[in-house]
Design a protein that fits this description.
Keywords: Kinase, Membrane, Phosphoprotein, Transferase, Transmembrane, Transmembrane helix, Two-component regulatory system. With 369 residues, the protein is of the alpha+beta class. Helix content is 60%, strand content 12%. It has helices at residues 2-12, 17-36, 48-64, 72-86, 89-94, 96-109, 114-117, 120-165, 167-183, 186-218, 230-238, 261-278, 328-338; strands at 225-229, 247-251, 256-260, 283-290, 293-299, 343-347, 352-359.
């Protein structure tokens, strides 16, 4: 930037074109050297050496213009700001001597009056103070980034551990329940059936944890979509809901959804859980066709969504607290987007309706075609 400004300065001061050209060439040479040096192979603080060359060019510029330091001060501060973003405080302190030499020596050589020399006692400490402030903030940001990176590593390891390690004991539980179910009758059989459904759901939730990790890291999710009767999909999902909660389905027999069955089930159960946790019964589940989209709607009759929460409702950890960690609606939004639809919240009186749309697929081809 300094070299380009020197070239532009020729238009304003044709008489000093020779000096401006020399300064521009020096700036260009310094920039070229810094671009060609393989800094990544050297010590992390080695680029600070380039600052010494920059100070030398600043001094040359001041001297070549007969002690006029109009352009030296801003670039001195800019150089300090760059250094503060990348280097520790001791390097900023070490820069004090070359910065002073680069600013004062050209002024002394060109016999500038004391009042001009005295400007160094204002500019240089101010530039150093600004650098210290920037360095402190940059250091805090780097520390926060490292802390977040460690948290992310721990979270990833935890998700993978939970998702994988839960499968072995769950398989044992499932085998035991299946063995007992073969000879059970009456109420015992119904209880064992419920237990088998829940173990199957836990296995799918473990897969869902891995999906969360994959969505977070790559933004992609592989779906296994097929045509499913909407009524059967909803009824299957509601079989995992406790009998003592008021959840009602209003789904026609003639609607067919083109969805990933497992992901649809996770979407619906997350929305029902959210409605029961934060809303009020009854919870009404409906599926209707609206043009090019099928709309899954889960409505509660509670107090609605607080205005402060609405902008971040479908974000991660939006409503974390004693009742949950705030991932349910975020997962719903990600699964909806993977299907080519979207998730939204619509106000009702009373309550709120969570709506997820799915694109309508081509009709199921007739058999034998």
């Amino acid at each position: 930037m300094a070299g380009l400004l020197a070239l532009l300065g020729i238009l304003n001061d044709p008489g000093g074109s020779g000096r401006l050209l020399v300064v521009a060439l020096c700036d260009a040479a310094l920039a070229l050297v810094t671009l060609l040096v393989p800094w990544e192979r050297l010590h992390p603080h080695s680029p600070a050496v380039a600052g010494l060359g920059a100070f030398a060019v600043l001094g040359l510029s001041t001297w070549s213009f007969g002690g006029v330091a109009t352009g030296t001060g801003p670039f001195l501060v800019l150089l300090y700001a760059w250094s503060a973003l990348h280097f520790p405080r001791w390097i900023l302190g070490a820069y004090a001597l070359p910065a002073t030499v680069a600013y004062l020596v050209p002024l002394i050589i060109t016999d500038q009056p004391p009042i001009i020399l005295g400007s160094a006692f204002i500019l240089l400490p101010a530039a150093l103070a600004v650098a210290f402030l920037i360095e402190a903030q940059a250091r805090h940001l780097r520390d926060d980034r490292l802390r977040l990176a460690r948290i992310e590593q721990w979270r990833t390891a935890m998700i993978n551990t939970l998702a994988h390690d839960v499968r072995a004991p769950l398989s044992t539980v499932r085998v035991v329940l299946e063995e007992l179910r073969e000879t059970a009758t009456g109420q015992s059989a119904r209880m064992l059936d419920a237990g088998l459904r829940q173990t199957a759901r836990i296995a799918r939730l473990a897969d869902g944890l891995l999906d969360v990790h994959r969505i977070d890291s790559s933004g992609e999710l592989k779906l296994d979509r097929a045509h499913h009767p909407a009524h059967a999909l909803v009824e299957d999902a509601l079989s995992y809901v406790r009998d003592d909660v008021d959840v009602r389905a209003d789904v026609g027999e003639d609607i067919t959804l083109y969805v990933d069955k497992q992901r649809f089930e996770q979407i619906l159960l997350n929305l029902i859980t959210n409605a029961l946790r934060y809303g009020k019964a009854p919870v009404i589940v409906s599926v209707v066709r609206d043009g090019a989209f099928d709309r899954l709607e889960v409505r509660d009759h509670g107090p609605g969504i607080p205005e402060t929460l609405r902008p971040r409702l479908f974000s991660q950890f939006a409503a974390e607290g004693a009742q949950g960690v705030g991932l349910g609606l975020w997962i719903v939004r990600q699964f909806a987007a993977a299907h080519g639809g979207q998730a939204s919240a619509e106000a009702r009186d009373p309550g709120v309706a969570m709506v997820v749309t799915f694109p309508v697929a081509d009709p199921i081809p007739p058999a034998g075609t």
